[in-house]
Amino acid sequence: MITSTLSLVATAQNKITNPFGLVYENAITKNISGEVNIHPVTYKLNGIEIAANVYTPANYDPSKHYPVVVVAHPNGGVKEQVAGLYAQRLAESGYIAIAADAAYQGASGGQPRNVDKPAFRIEDIRGMADYICKYKGVDASRLGLLGICGGGGYALKAAQTDKRFQAVATLSMFNSGVVRRNGYMNSGVSTIQQRLQQATEARAQEAAGGKVLYAADTEITDEMADKMPFDLYREGHYYYNRTHAHPNSTFKYTMSSLLDLMEFDAATNMDLINQPLLMIAGSKADSFYMTDQAFNLATGTRTKELFLIPGATHIQTYYVPEYVGQAMNKLNEFFGKNLQQKVHLN
């Protein structure tokens, strides 16, 4: 039986006790020889320091050759939440995996804070590939990509042009630009021009050296969340602000980012994806329309699959063991088939 959203508040974390800052269930608490280990790393991407976690499989031997998966986190999320959970589970399945905080977000550098531009998020994914492909033990010819929520939309765009990614998967894909422009389930179409004007003025204010303005910068109470009409936002509040809260995670983003977000659409040029494609979503997710559209437009690949997790909503695919298990079974099948072992001569 799936625990209700409201009852999850009872298990909310008031402080993070995990030494690596991880907030997901059954997270690594210490590195033990012979088991899955986590390695916090930093690297430069276009002059900005990126904070990432690399997960290595049990009995990792840097002289061997491992398949690898890049994991892109949701909008507002950080590497210590759902992206870390799936990266750890992939490492448990024998992959090296990397989850990094986006530039300008989380523990990564960049000013002003919480810039959220699609081009930057796509570059973050490419930057993870740049770094991890040089990591000891990585077989760069067996590179996979997993994008979660907003990271899923950016993963689709990255895979359209970056053919290092041999297989691409999304979980609960969220098309950030379409939602920022039209509102969730087209609830904000009537205010598009008004919000563009606000973003324009915010950009001008920043350029003049004024205060940086932010969107989605309101503190949401449980009572406010309970009245939200969409499961994604209602359950997202409890996930991000209660049960899996992390101090580096925030929904807010610079208002000027909307100038870039509102012209972005993850589902354009889907025919450029010629790699195997797997898109996973909950059967009860009110965000499914975004996955459905992008999947149907992916006409350039010979191998694609849409996998629905029965009974799951969008946010429940982030943490409910039953649903995470089903997603991982499908991901292991998909990456196992498409990142097959190759012979290496040492």
Question: What are the SSEs and their pairings?
Answer:
Layout: E1 37-45, E2 48-56, E3 66-72, H1 82-92, E4 96-100, H2 118-132, E5 138-148, H3 150-161, E6 165-171, H4 176-182, H5 192-207, E7 214-215, H6 222-226, H7 231-243, E8 253-254, H8 258-261, E9 277-282, H9 288-297, E10 304-309, H10 321-338
Main sheet overview: 8 strands, mixed
The N- to C-terminal Cα distance equals 50 Å
User: H/E order of the elements?
Assistant: EEEHEHEHEHHEHHEHEHEH
Overall helicity? 25-40%
CATH fold label of the domain at 25-187 and 261-338: Rossmann fold
> DSSP strand (E) fraction?
15-25%
Q: Work out the number of β strands.
A: 10
Oligomer: single chain
- CATH level-two architecture of the domain at 25-187 and 261-338: 3-Layer(aba) Sandwich
The level 1 CATH classification of the domain at 25-187 and 261-338 is Alpha Beta
Cross-sheet strand order for the largest sheet: 1-2-4-3-5-6-9-10
Cα shape: globular
User: Helix tally?
Assistant: 10
Give me the CATH superfamily of the domain at 25-187 and 261-338.
Alpha/Beta hydrolase fold, catalytic domain
How big is the Rg?
19 Å
Mean pLDDT, all residues: 94
Low-confidence stretches: 1-14
Would you tell me the structural class of the helices and strands? Answer: alpha/beta
Which labels suit this protein?
10 strands; alpha/beta; 346 residues; Rossmann fold; two-stranded antiparallel ribbon; single chain; disordered N terminus
